[in-house]
């Protein structure tokens, strides 16, 4: 009975946290109401979503004014986020407000998998505290109305990670159905951003750490890979048919590689001008293939010929990856189109920076005080693997947002430990000293 009562109490608290998350995101979205900048990722995503909602397929038109719905088929970015927006546009209309509300919903629901991640890796209170942090963290709240894939990807990544953690039974054996569902969820996340595929090797690590034999963990991992591949292969076949080129997920692979491995590379995003200058006048649909092929070739040659420079770039990429994401204010202000009120910029930037570093400090306290327990060890390994993955491409502060679903519960574990120590200190009885004989 006490266990049922505890679960009911946790559910009630989690629902309250979700309401707070919704209120914070809705208020911010209504107050800022950003619009996609011309030729930006956000404009591309929303234009493709409108094409899908209008029955024109996964297509975009490259015009002098920017990306527009319609036009030829596109392969530049994966389809997951535009498909998510398209469902809302189809139901509720073409307004940008509809797309922003879709992000508000995804950001709100993120607190649910965060709770389960924290409960599995650390404890139920840490999960609730982590969910509360995610509910109000400016790094996540401020990105919500921006029509980029960050908010939706963070949600689906958190769902896939939570499923991974709950594939084990108490005795360490694996639930086959959960493994299949995890594979499906990972594929969905990968259709938003390919980095989600790092969860497949991480699954083997967690399952082995949680009591499954190496053989069981290996077979389950292979099953998850096959399930994910079965979902991803149809999209790859479509891309190959559309472009007559071996583009499996999206054509921005070579584009992003070139950004990270070029004479002009700086560790973070910069326009790869040499790719844009190649074959001027080429239609955008053909240019997507050129970006992928030429970008990949030039990036690999550059990395091979300049190993010393690559070491320096790797350090810059790590720094950029883990910087505070206060650059979100440029996106929220639509690069000048929807400016923030006078005097608001600096306080908002400080709120992002201070809250982010405070959360990292708490997570570090949990790490140092954990004696490398299983949950902390797995979380740390995931952070390392994620970082190495982005060294291959380039670093941007927004790319660490999906990892906050692990860092926030770790910070919650530190808060739980601090509260426990404080309560013990308050409960210690005062010891009266005997009077000194005179």
Please describe the structure with a list of short key phrases separated by commas or semicolons.
19 helices; 438 residues; disordered C terminus; single chain; mainly alpha
Elements, N to C (H/E): HHEEHHHHHHHHHHHHHHHHH
The largest sheet is: 2 strands, antiparallel
In total, how many beta strands?
Answer: 2
Total helical segments: 19
Strand content: under 5%
Assembly classification: single chain
Q: Taking strands numbered 1, 2, ... along the chain, how are they ordered across the largest sheet?
A: 1-2
**Helix share, percent:** 55-70%
Distance between the termini: 59 Å
- How would you state the average pLDDT, rounded? 93
How many structural domains are formed by the residues?
A: 1
Q: Shape from CA axes?
A: globular
Uncertain parts: 430-438
Radius of gyration: 24 Å
Classify the secondary structure makeup into a structural class. Answer: mainly alpha
What topology emerges from the helices and strands here?
Blueprint: H1 2-32, H2 41-53, E1 59-63, E2 66-73, H3 80-92, H4 96-109, H5 111-121, H6 124-136, H7 138-141, H8 150-165, H9 176-190, H10 199-209, H11 214-243, H12 252-260, H13 273-277, H14 284-305, H15 307-321, H16 328-332, H17 345-368, H18 374-391, H19 404-427
Antiparallel strand pairs: 1-2
Helix pairs in contact: 1-4, 1-6, 2-3, 3-4, 4-8, 5-6, 5-8, 5-19, 6-19, 8-9, 8-10, 9-11, 10-11, 10-18, 12-14, 15-18, 17-19
């Amino acid at each position: 009975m006490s266990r049922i009562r505890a679960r009911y109490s946790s559910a009630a608290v989690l629902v309250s946290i979700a309401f707070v998350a919704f209120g914070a995101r809705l208020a911010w979205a209504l107050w800022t109401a950003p619009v996609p900048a011309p030729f930006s990722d956000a404009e591309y995503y929303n234009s493709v979503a409108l094409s899908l909602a209008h029955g024109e397929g996964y297509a975009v038109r490259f015009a002098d004014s920017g990306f527009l719905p319609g036009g030829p088929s596109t392969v530049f970015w994966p389809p997951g986020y535009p498909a998510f927006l398209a469902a809302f546009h189809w139901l509720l209309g073409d307004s940008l407000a509809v797309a922003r509300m879709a992000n508000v919903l995804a950001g709100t629901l993120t607190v649910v998998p965060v709770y389960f991640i924290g409960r599995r890796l650390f404890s139920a209170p840490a999960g609730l505290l982590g969910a509360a942090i995610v509910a109000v963290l400016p790094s996540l709240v401020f990105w919500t109305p921006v029509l980029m894939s960050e908010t939706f990807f963070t949600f689906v990544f958190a769902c896939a990670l939570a499923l991974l953690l709950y594939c084990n039974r108490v005795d360490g054996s694996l639930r086959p159905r959960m493994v299949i569902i995890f594979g499906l969820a990972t594929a969905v996340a990968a259709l938003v951003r390919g980095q989600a595929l790092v969860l497949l090797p991480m699954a083997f690590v967690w399952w082995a750490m949680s009591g499954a034999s190496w053989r069981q963990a290996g077979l389950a991992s292979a099953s998850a890979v096959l399930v994910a591949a079965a979902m991803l292969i149809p999209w790859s076949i479509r891309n190959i048919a559309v472009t007559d080129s071996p583009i499996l997920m999206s054509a921005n692979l070579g584009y992003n590689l070139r950004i990270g491995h070029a004479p002009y590379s700086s560790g973070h995003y910069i326009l790869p001008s040499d790719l844009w200058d190649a074959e001027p006048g080429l239609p955008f649909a053909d240019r997507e293939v050129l970006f992928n092929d030429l970008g990949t070739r030039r990036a690999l040659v550059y990395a091979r010929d300049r190993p010393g420079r690559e070491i320096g770039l790797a350090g810059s990429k790590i720094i950029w990856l883990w910087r505070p994401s206060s650059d979100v204010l440029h996106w929220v202000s639509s690069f000048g189109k929807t400016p923030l009120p006078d005097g608001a910029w600096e306080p908002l930037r400080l709120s992002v920076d201070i809250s982010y570093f405070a959360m990292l400090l708490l997570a570090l306290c949990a790490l140092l005080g954990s004696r490398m327990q299983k949950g902390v060890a797995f979380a740390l390994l995931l952070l390392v693997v994620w970082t190495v993955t982005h060294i291959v491409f380039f670093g941007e502060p927004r790319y660490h947002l999906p990892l906050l679903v692990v860092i926030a519960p770790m910070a919650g574990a530190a808060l739980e430990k601090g509260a426990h120590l404080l309560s013990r200190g308050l409960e210690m009885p005062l010891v009266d000293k005997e009077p000194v004989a005179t």
